[in-house]
Design a protein that fits this description.
CATH superfamily of the largest domain in chain A: Type I PLP-dependent aspartate aminotransferase-like (Major domain)
Largest sheet of chain A: 7 strands, mixed
Strand content of chain A: 5-15%
Strand order of the largest sheet of chain A: 2-8-7-6-5-3-4
Low-confidence stretches of chain A: 1-44
CATH topology of the largest domain in chain A: Aspartate Aminotransferase, domain 2
Number of domains of chain A: 3
Order of helices and strands of chain A: HHHEHHEHEHEHEHEEHEHHHHEEHEEH
Mean pLDDT of chain A: 91
Number of helices of chain A: 16
Distance between the termini of chain A: 32 Å
Oligomer: homodimer
CATH architecture of the largest domain in chain A: 3-Layer(aba) Sandwich
């Protein structure tokens, strides 16, 4: 299985050079990997540029070889819980081991335990894109390794983030208030979970400043039952009382979009009960089925009730850089904040979640902390510079805008649009294959590159049996190692999710995946 | 300045090969970087293994060259706010640009805007370590690009994290309850800010479950005034009322360690007032001056008042892998959670913050959310597998244990200990230089590799003037570009922080830094 992950000739030479150099070289400071070092003359030099060059090249080849052979691995790992514990030592080694030995362990012990997200046959969850440009960007981020918590800690890290988020805002045709030139602006968070937590805290504190800080127990959050679990987690962390989280039922009558009249009713009821509606989360492209909430109608209700309106477009926001899909975020002008994950569709390696807010001061008011040891001239001359530490949960942060900037420049916007369009086209192909087969049905209309489908109930129309069979199919397909899909539940039906978006996926992979699914289904039906 | 960052011969050849290949090759699917692609035959292949190889090698050389020339850059960037806005375009390019052009922009536009954290002359804040092993680890994390939110999403990512955190716990000689075999365990967070937030939420929810959820306004947090601002931020996010945050004064009489009697008094007063003490944060190595709180005494008070006791050893925890420094976390056995940042001293690139808890269920109770689309066989057979999504704020997570594992194996524990000891030795050298100069004084005894010092007041003994002069010195030194130091305030005194820990720092850099500081000071004194 790992045949072609053997070191190639060039790398092998590199390593031999490195090894012999390490043994023969007279200058002890150049031998940091050697076990034979002793005494003060042999001071460790953990960041030797020539060593980084030699072993960096070796690692590039290792990773390139991984991608070359990626289709040979079972997509979902087939290991059993605890497998690694049984094959790794109980404690860290006292003395250095060789790169060769460690890479060999990666091949034989780690790779079999991976679920290969970059495999062209990975159709589960939503994609997490890797790309050559994203990889180069991450290398550079890691190489420079600066921590840009405040402007002065690395001005370029802050300024590039502002610029690139403005670029993206323009691509998405977001309203001007989200751009950096006014009181709005964008920031890179790790993931959509952090993004929604940040804006919820900002909204919570804003309302508590006006109604009094003991009113927390009166604050109410609204969303549809299709909203990502990140919202529930944010509520838990923000201390919103569970009974004040209105999870509004959505069903097939709206393709699982939130119904504004349900929202309006809930809000009115809560106000009548003396509660305070303060946060509404709208979805563009839910995780279960890519449902799109009616933003315009929701925004109106949010505005007339002075609620913070957050739009979570973590997945589908990517497609909205294409003019023909921009319609799905129509109404974003009524939102207070908007979020999309560049790692889901824009070829930028995880993590990279883009958050825009109209009122940056609501965020910085909630998140700023200015101890003496972080004070500096630039930050104290207020308003002149942005200190992103005040826009996020943590203090420290990586220079993530660098990879997004490199992706945008090395691929160009047109290529990125076509990349997304291609996945949607492939999803249409899959959708058609499913709908032509009488044993299957497509559940909810496909909008982006996710197809929700299932095996139809058999003669007795027993939904429970049907659910069990679909779960059996899911397990059979995934256990084959040939592809990996995931599932969800919609109105009580177990639904299979076929999500296209891995960078290497082509039409042949989609067709082959369908063949495997059909075969496993036939086998189940014959049983 | 950027002379040796010019492409080397080998890379240039690589690039030329790539360019001519892209233009001449007949198979259009192999030309994803070309602007001339059109039509369906030219489908984009954003993760072409050979392209990754070619450009990956190019990037390795770029980064190796950066390290080779890192001393030629001003350590703290000398750019003015807004510099980048003036030299970058207003929008993303429609069509691909070449790697060469982008790297040229990195050299001419980004590098001048960086504060070079990896420079051997970076002595500000606390270090953020880079290393060859850490770099290789990050490359591999980025290359594999798996998202291990639950066990099944990549079993190796979860299992390696458990194993490596156990390794570290053993190196630190943490009590058994922090190891994974019982109900405790370790987890990698992004930073110490996330770590303290996670445990505070866990503690908050645990106490609210027993006293009722409307008691939030009664909850009280305790720490010394030397505690990192991350605690204040965590309190803000967790909704702890600001007037319930007891910030206990610490002064030079205890070298800025918390005084247990002050804590006991505050706790008693709060209980009498009907409040509920629930969270105590103890420090091992504060950010201002590496103060170490008396953990044993604090733990006793925490225990007898049923408070969650968190120990923040973000910086100094690293040194505690050396037996001679282990004493500074004596008393950790009384803690409920313990945190240290491997990126501060253990040669693991940011981000990588290690958190251990004795009661994992307190954490998962607060952070778990289990939507249908994440359910899977392994997780449902409870207790068998760990799903780290329930141990952190976000859902998604990178495979960060991989780099820590590689660092531990490629350097070995003894080398890491000596690496830390060497920085402490260099700090002693600097401390001596300072104390031998009558214009300067060391403030607070040095314990680890941070030296807190200042210019002494002149004849009139005016502390205010002295503060101004030290701030002038700080600015003069940092504006020179020759080194970067930071400052803090202790008992109203402006204090300069000389923090040693960059991977390339040697004795000559420390001595040269002192020379610059002395020269700038003489100049100020002559004025």
């Amino acid at each position: 299985m790992h045949g072609s992950l053997q070191p190639r000739a060039r790398s092998e030479r590199c390593l031999q050079v490195a090894a012999s150099t390490a043994e023969n070289r007279q200058d002890p400071e150049r031998r940091p990997w050697s076990e034979r070092e002793k005494g003060s003359r042999n001071m460790l030099r953990p960041m030797d540029s020539e060593q980084l060059r030699e072993y960096g090249h070796r690692m590039v080849d290792f990773i390139a070889d991984y991608y070359k052979t990626i289709e040979s691995f079972p997509v979902r790992s087939l290991v059993q819980p605890g497998y690694l514990h049984n094959i790794l030592p109980d404690s860290a080694p006292d003395h250095p081991e060789t790169v060769e030995k460690v890479l060999d362990d990666v091949k034989t012990k780690i790779l079999p335990g991976l679920t290969h997200w970059q495999s062209p046959n990975f159709f589960a969850y939503y994609p997490s894109n890797s790309s050559v440009a994203g990889f180069l960007g991450e290398m550079l981020i890691t190489g420079l390794n600066v921590i840009g918590f405040s402007w002065v800690a690395s001005p370029a890290a802050t300024e590039l983030e502002i610029i690139v988020l403005d670029w993206l805002a323009k691509l998405l045709n977001l309203p001007e208030q989200f751009l950096s030139k006014g009181k709005g602006g964008g920031v890179i968070q790790g993931s959509a979970s952090e993004a929604v937590l940040v804006v919820m805290i900002a909204a919570r504190d804003k309302v508590l400043r006006s109604v009094g800080k003991n009113a927390l127990e009166k604050l109410v959050v609204y969303s549809s039952d299709q909203t990502h679990s990140a919202l529930q987690k944010a509520c838990q962390i923000a201390g919103i009382h569970p009974e004040n989280c209105r999870v509004l039922k959505a069903d097939s009558s709206t393709n699982y979009a939130m119904r504004p009249e349900l929202l309006q009713e809930a809000v009115s009821r809560d106000i009548e009960a003396g509660l305070i509606p303060f946060f509404l989360c709208g979805n563009v492209g839910t995780t279960s089925s890519t449902a799109v909430d009616p933003l315009v109608a929701l925004g109106k209700i949010a505005k007339s009730n002075e609620m913070w309106f957050h739009v979570d477009a973590a997945y589908a926001g990517n497609a909205c850089i294409c003019p023909e899909y921009r319609q799905y975020i129509d109404g974003v002008e009524t939102a207070d904040s908007f979020n999309m994950n560049a790692y889901k569709g824009l070829l930028t390696n995880f993590d990279c979640s883009l958050l825009w807010v109209k009122d940056q001061y609501a965020v910085t008011e909630a998140f700023s902390a200015n101890p003496e040891y972080l004070k500096n001239k630039a930050s104290q001359e207020n308003l002149v510079v942005v200190d992103y530490k005040d826009w996020q949960i943590a203090l420290s942060r990586r220079f993530r805008s660098l990879k997004l900037w490199m992706v945008l420049r090395l691929y160009g916007v047109e290529t990125l649009k076509n990349y997304i369009r291609n996945h949607i086209k492939l999803a249409k192909v899959f959708e058609q294959l499913v709908s032509q087969d009488s044993n299957f049905e497509v559940i909810t209309p496909r909008i982006f590159s996710l197809v929700c489908f299932r095996m139809v109930p058999t003669d007795d129309n027993d939904e429970k049996k049907c659910n069990v069979r679909n779960q059996e199919l899911l397990e059979a397909v995934n256990s084959s190692g040939k592809l990996f899909i995931s599932h969800t539940a919609l109105s009580g039906k177990i639904v299979l999710r076929f999500s296209i978006g891995a960078p290497l996926t082509e039409e042949k992979h989609v067709k082959e995946a369908w063949k495997v699914i059909k075969e496993e289904a036939s086998y189940l039906l014959r049983k």
